[in-house]
Amino acid sequence: MEGLGDMKPVIVVHGGAGRIFKDREEGSRSGVTRAALKGYNILKQGGSALDAVEEAVTLMEDDPHFNAGCGSVLNEKGEVEMDAIIMDGKNLASGAVSAVKCIANPIKLARLVMEKTEHMLLTDHGAQLFAKAKGVPEIPGEKLITERSRERWSKNLEADSNPQEFKKDPGTVGAVAIDSEGNVACATSTGGLTNKLVGRVGDSACIGCGGYADNHIGATSTTGHGESMMKVVLARLILYHMEQGMSPEEAADTALDYMKTRVNGLGGVIVVSNSGDWAARFSTKQMSWASVKDDQLQCGIYTGEIQTRSVAEALGSK
Amino acid sequence: MGTKPVLVVHGGAWAIPDDLAERSILGVKNAVTNGFAVLEMGGSSMKAVEVAVQTLEDDTVFDAGHGAVLNADGYVELDAIIMNGKTLAAGAVSCIKNISNPVTFACSVLEKTPHVMLTGTGANQFAEKLGIPQVPVEELVTEHAKAEWEQYRKYKHTVKSLFNTELVHDTVGAVAIDYEGNVACATSTGGITNKMVGRVGDTPLIGSGGYADNLVGAVSATGHGESIMKVTLARLILFHMEQGKTPEEAANSALHYMEKRVHGRGGVIVVSRTGEWTARFTTKRMAWASIKEGVLLYGLNTGETIQEIINPPK
After folding, report:
1. Which of B36, B63, B233, B307 would disulfide-bridge B169, Cβ 3.0–4.6 Å?
2. Comparing C-alpha atoms, which of B24, B166, B204 is closest to residue B10?
3. Active site residue A172
4. Residue A15 and residue A20: Cα distance in Å, rounded?
5. Among the partner residues A91, A199, A209, nearest to B126 by beta-carbon distance
6. Which pLDDT does position A2 carry in this prediction?
7. Which sequence ranges are marked TM in the entry (chain B) (predicted)?
8. How far is B85 from chain A (nearest CA, A)?
9. Is A126 on the interface with B (CB under 8 A)?
10. Residue A155: pLDDT band with limits 50, 70, 90
11. A192 in contact with chain B, both atoms CB, cutoff 8 A
12. DSSP string, B236-279
């Protein structure tokens, strides 16, 4: 187990805060659980927090239950446009993409931006060119579209649709982790808002809004109403509260409460501190999340709900 | 009408060569005068920062709007943000082409969409829908920018080497507080010469290139974009002010942190909710100007502040 340090690894993932329909609960629950176990396995073998969050998010991008990668919601024109960010708490390096189409895993492209360019955010056509240059396979846009997202899209085009309704749809998947070396990282990926304008960029691609990671404090990934999270720079705000001495849970609750009172926005966050304390909090009705620490797997969807199993038990039941 | 209005503008933090020094100073003085006229007549800080930044965008000496630099393919791609400290509402555009006043377009995103940021082709399509005129690229590109681009192409300088020599134009911006005590910020840029197609820097990112909050103050940032993003510079300065630091202390400590933690240099202008302001930078030069209580101040070199009385006290 090369590179194994003293820190106990922790991973927390979320599959979006919002309204999760009954028939989607089971799929969401098992999706976040699988992602958390996958990330934790990487950490246990001495892998980096960066690899763990990337792999966990990739798995959720590939899972059609979530609004990211395959299963993304559609913009006003019926296309999938995705945003993603990844950040390394060790050196504050980060990579992000916005409004990218026709690739399976935006989070992997974000990692390439971080490692293979001198920039941090590539957008639209330029991001597409970069993907091509790096040999990232282009897939037909159709492959990312599920029957369900197409249905919701056309429903929202109807004259009597309620635009406030689709604000409640869960957005975004994300992960935060700390590895055995004590490095923290975050990753966030999303298809954004249903029926958004073409070219709309939400919080997920914006550093400090959709995610932030700093070894001196911790890491956080956010989900919810993108524009509200941008207005309060939510991820950075939570870490700021932690710098002032709050626990991850207090910091998350304080920031979510502030977002609600100041800009009338709801959302959810996952947080890990540089000492391995963590929290999964939300002001929406639901948020699917899962965490693993000390070989204990926890997950939940409703406020106050925590299911606990050992990792061995969870792997056995798979 | 409890607050005395203040406007501060900058024309980018970098190693401004001597032959551009005089025009840069004239440019920021012109912009601060135009923007302050709005405040004086009881206009909002939002309108004032928009007018000031428009003036800077229209001035070819600055890398924003007219005078923007060229990306790796020889095109101009522009980023801008504007933010209202009263509501925290913001509008931003990234990677847009052929629009002469990105800051005004950012304002339209704020006012006419439920979104904060639009990017690339989608943003340009929206501009078309609004009837914002698209200008030919040639109109935005100066001979200077073209020559500079060709030079960089020829010698294949990496972006990094450009930063090391600080030969990077970057960004214009403004912060203001109006009679009502509302603060606002606006930032606009053409980015880095020979940048990758689609590169978005700090400018349109809320909390990095700018942030405004009536409870604290407003900031506009300039300098090495990627470093500014890493430390979310604008929001960081306001965090420091929330902790009781003055704008000057907050700006200095955040710029110092950025240099130490991620080896990046830059400059900022800040106004607090009580009308205290500052213009600080760690690059060689930054053209800036401010007006408060009938006094225009401006500077270019570290530690330099030159005063002009524009309205003799009655």
Report:
1. B63
2. B24
3. yes
4. 10
5. A199
6. 45
7. none
8. 10
9. yes
10. confident
11. no
12. HHHHHHHTT--HHHHHHHHHHHHHHHH---EEEEEEETTS-EEE
Residue B57 in 3-state DSSP? helix
What rounded mean pLDDT belongs to chain A? 93
pLDDT-derived band at A158, boundaries 50, 70, 90: confident
Summarize pLDDT for A17-62 with one digit per residue, the tens: 988 888 889 999 999 999 999 999 999 999 999 999 999 999 999 9
Residue where the block lists tokens 């009837």: B131
- Please state, in angstroms and rounded to a whole number, the distance separating the CA atoms of residues A308 and B260: 43
What residues of A are designated binding site for substrate? 200-203, 223-226
Is A98 near chain B, with CB under 8 Å? yes
- What's the confidence (pLDDT) of residue A168? 63
How many Å apart are CA B124 and CA B143, to the nearest integer? Answer: 25
The CA distance from B302 to A159, in Å, is 59
8 A C-beta contact, residue A311 and residue A33? no
| Whole-number pLDDT of residue B162 | 46
Q: Are strands A93-100 and A121-123 parallel, antiparallel or unpaired?
A: parallel
CB-based contacts of B296, cutoff 8 Å, min separation 6: B29, B32, B33, B289, B290, B307, B308, B309, B310
Question: Residue A157: which pLDDT band, with cuts at 50, 70 and 90?
Answer: confident
The sheet carrying A173-178 orders its strands as A307-310, A296-302, A286-293, A10-18, A173-178, A184-190, A82-88, A93-100, A121-123, B199-200
Contact between A14 and A174 under an 8 Å Cβ cutoff? The reply is yes
- Full-model pTM: 0.94
Spans of chain B below 50 pLDDT: 158-167, 312-314
Helix (H) or strand (E) holding A274: none
Identify which of A316, A67, A43 has the alpha carbon closest to the alpha carbon of residue A181. Answer: A43
Hey, is A161 helix, strand or coil? coil
